[in-house]
C-alpha cells in the first residue's frame, strides 16, 4: 500500500530555509524567550526612557536654578567679607582679615592697588554732598547711582548696562542687588561704600573682585572659586527617583503577569488537549478578547473530538461489517477441491481478518476512556521484557532490559502504555531477532517553562534497519517496509500507528532512527 503524502504535484515545493546570520542568532540569545519577559523588558525599557527624559528636563531646570543660587550666595559672601573689613578701623583691618575664617576657595588680601588685568565695574564720586534717602539707594535720586548699586556686586558698567561676575556676560545672568532682592544684606552707610569696584575677566570658575576702601587708598581684593552647579544637590531626589523606578518596575511585573496569564492558560489547555482529547473546556471569562479566544479554543476542541469520534465509528463499523463476509468466504473456501488454491485463498482471508482485527483495535484505542494514573515505568518495562521472553522462546536470550534507577514514575494510562511499548518490543523481536530495552534517568524538559521532567526509553534491535526516507512514514497506518517486513510475519502496518497515538496522547514523543552498523532504535519520551 502506498503511503499518504502531505504534498502533491499541484503544491509548490517548500522554500529552502536559510540559516540565520550572526546578528539574528546573537539577538535570539539575548532576547528573552517568554512573552511575559519580553513584555516586561519592553515596558521597563519604556519606563526607563521616560524617566531619563523627565530626569534630563528636571536636571536642566535644577541646573539653572542651582547656578543662580551659587552666584547669589557668592555675591552675598563677597558683600559680607567686604563689610566685615570696612567696618573695622583702618589700623585693625590687617588683624581682622587674618582672624576671618575663610573657606579654601576664598582668598582676601589688602593691597595698595588692584591687579593689572582687572576691569572697571563701577566708578562713584568719593563723597556726595547731600544726605541719601532710603529710596535714593535703590535708584530714587542722584543720576550717578546704579540700580541697587548695580546688578553686580556694587557694579555698574556704564551706558551698556551692568557687567562683572554677576552680570549678563557671566554664566549667572543679571541679578538684582539690594535689600528687596537679597534679604539680610541691607544697605551700607554712605561712608562705607567702596570708591571703586574692579573685576577680573572670567576664567572658568575662578573670579576676582577688588573694592577700593572709602577711608584709605587700599584695595580689598577677593579671589574666590565658584562651586559647580549640581542638579542632584538635594539628597531626597535620588531616593525618590529610585523609589519611583522600583515601584514602577513592580507594577509592571504585576500587570504583565496578570495580562499574560490568559496566554499561559491557553497554552496549558492546548498541551492538555494534545494529551487528552477529552480534557475539560477552558473557562470563557475575563476580558472580551480572552473570552473570545477561549470560546474559539473550546469550539476547536469540540470539533476535534467530533472528528475523532466519527472516524473511530467509521473504522469500527467497516471492520465489524467485514467480519461476516470473511467468515462466509472461509466456509466456501473449504469446498475448493484444489488443495493449493484452497491454501492460498485461506491465507489471504486470514490476512484480511488480521487487518480487520487490527482496525478494530485501532478504533478501540482511539475511543477508550482509561483514566490517568501513576505508573512505575521500571516495573512495567521489566514485565514486558519477561512476557516477551516467555512468548518468543527462540529469542529469549537476546531480550534484555536495563535501568540506572530502581523506580521511575510517570503519569499515564497503564493499559494503553503497556500496549504501545509491547508493540515496539514485539516489532524489534520479529524483525531484529531480539531487543534491548534501556531506561535512561529522568531529566528536565526543554519546554518554555522547563518545569516538567521527561524520561527516555531506548528500544534497540540488530535487524536490517530502515531506509532513511521511510523512518517517518512507518508511523502511517497500514504502511510496511518492503525490504525488512513481509507478509509471512502477519503484520498489518498498524502497530507503530497505535503506539504513536498512545504516546502522543500521553504528552510524549516517539522517533525512529537507524543504528550503526545495522539495526533500528526507537526513542520514546514520556513526561514524569
From TrEMBL:
CDD domains: HAMP (cd06225), HisKA (cd00082). InterPro entries: 2C_sensor_his_kinase, HAMP_dom, HATPase_C_sf, HATPase_dom, His_kinase_dom, HisK_dim/P_dom, HisK_dim/P_sf, Sig_transdc_His_kin-like_C. Residues 317-528 form the Histidine kinase domain. Its main location: membrane. It is a multi-pass membrane protein. It comes from the Bacteria. The chain crosses the membrane at residues 35-60, 237-256. PROSITE patterns: HAMP, HIS_KIN. It is found in: Cell inner membrane. It catalyses: ATP + protein L-histidine = ADP + protein N-phospho-L-histidine. Residues 257-309 form the HAMP domain. Its EC number is 2.7.13.3. Pfam families: HAMP, HATPase_c. This is histidine kinase. Keywords: ATP-binding, Cell inner membrane, Cell membrane, Kinase, Membrane, Nucleotide-binding, Phosphoprotein, Transferase, Transmembrane, Transmembrane helix, Two-component regulatory system. Residues 1-10 have a biased composition (Polar residues). Residues 1-22, 138-192 are annotated as: Disordered.
Amino acid at each position: 500500500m502506498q503511503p499518504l503524502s502531505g504534498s502533491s504535484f499541484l503544491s509548490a515545493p517548500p522554500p529552502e530555509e536559510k540559516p540565520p546570520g550572526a546578528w539574528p542568532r546573537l539577538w535570539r540569545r539575548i532576547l528573552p524567550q517568554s512573552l511575559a519577559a519580553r513584555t516586561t523588558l519592553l515596558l521597563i525599557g519604556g519606563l526607563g526612557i521616560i524617566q531619563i527624559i523627565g530626569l534630563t528636563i528636571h536636571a536642566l531646570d535644577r541646573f539653572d536654578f542651582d547656578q543662580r543660587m551659587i552666584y547669589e550666595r557668592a555675591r552675598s559672601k563677597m558683600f559680607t567679607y567686604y563689610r566685615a573689613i570696612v567696618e573695622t578701623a583702618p589700623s585693625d583691618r590687617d588683624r581682622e582679615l587674618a582672624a576671618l575664617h575663610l573657606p579654601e576657595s576664598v582668598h582676601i588680601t589688602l593691597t595698595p592697588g588692584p591687579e593689572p588685568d582687572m576691569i572697571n565695574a563701577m566708578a562713584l564720586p568719593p563723597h556726595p554732598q547731600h544726605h541719601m534717602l532710603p529710596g535714593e539707594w535703590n535708584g530714587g535720586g542722584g543720576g550717578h547711582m546704579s540700580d541697587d548699586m548695580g546688578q553686580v556686586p556694587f557694579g555698574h558698567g556704564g551706558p551698556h548696562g551692568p557687567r562683572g561676575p554677576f552680570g549678563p556676560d557671566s554664566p549667572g545672568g543679571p541679578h538684582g542687588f539690594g535689600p528687596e532682592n537679597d534679604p539680610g544684606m541691607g544697605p551700607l552707610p554712605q561712608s562705607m561704600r567702596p570708591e571703586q569696584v574692579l573685576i577680573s575677566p572670567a576664567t572658568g570658575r575662578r573670579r576676582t573682585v577688588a573694592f577700593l576702601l572709602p577711608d584709605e587708598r587700599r584695595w580689598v581684593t577677593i579671589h574666590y572659586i565658584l562651586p559647580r552647579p549640581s542638579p542632584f544637590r538635594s539628597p531626597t531626589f535620588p531616593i525618590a527617583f529610585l523609589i519611583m523606578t522600583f515601584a514602577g518596575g513592580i507594577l509592571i511585573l504585576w500587570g504583565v503577569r496578570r495580562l499574560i496569564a490568559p496566554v499561559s492558560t491557553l497554552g496549558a489547555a492546548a498541551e492538555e488537549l494534545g494529551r487528552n482529547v477529552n480534557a475539560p473546556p477552558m473557562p470563557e471569562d475575563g476580558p472580551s478578547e480572552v473570552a473570545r479566544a477561549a470560546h474559539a479554543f473550546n469550539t476547536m476542541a469540540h470539533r476535534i473530538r467530533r472528528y475523532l469520534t466519527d472516524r473511530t465509528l467509521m473504522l469500527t463499523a467497516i471492520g465489524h461489517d467485514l467480519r461476516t463476509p470473511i467468515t462466509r468466504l472461509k466456509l466456501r473456501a473449504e469446498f475448493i477441491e484444489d488443495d493449493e488454491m484452497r491454501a492460498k485463498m485461506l491465507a489471504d482471508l486470514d490476512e484480511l481478518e488480521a487487518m480487520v482485527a487490527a482496525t478494530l483495535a485501532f478504533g478501540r484505542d482511539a475511543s477508550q476512556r482509561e483514566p490517568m494514573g501513576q505508573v512505575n515505568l521500571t516495573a512495567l518495562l521489566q514485565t514486558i521484557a519477561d512476557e516477551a521472553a516467555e512468548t518468543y522462546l527462540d529469542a529469549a536470550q537476546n531480550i534484555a532490559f536495563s535501568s540506572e534507577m530502581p523506580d521511575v514514575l510517570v503519569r499515564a494510562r497503564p493499559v494503553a502504555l503497556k500496549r504501545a511499548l509491547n508493540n515496539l518490543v514485539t516489532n524489534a523481536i520479529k524483525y531484529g531477532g531480539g531487543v534491548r530495552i534501556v531506561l535512561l534517568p529522568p531529566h528536565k524538559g526543554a519546554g518554555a517553562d522547563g518545569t516538567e521532567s521527561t524520561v527516555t526509553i531506548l528500544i534497540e534491535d540488530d535487524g536490517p534497519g530502515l531506509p532513511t526516507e521511510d523512518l517517518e512514514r512507518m508511523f502511517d497506518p497500514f504502511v510496511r517496509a518492503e525490504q525488512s517486513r513481509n507478509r509471512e510475519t502477519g503484520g498489518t502496518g498498524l502497530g507503530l500507528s497505535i503506539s504513536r497515538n498512545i504516546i502522543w496522547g500521553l504528552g510524549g514523543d516517539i522517533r525512529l532512527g537507524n543504528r550503526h552498523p545495522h539495526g533500528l532504535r526507537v526513542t520514546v519520551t514520556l513526561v514524569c
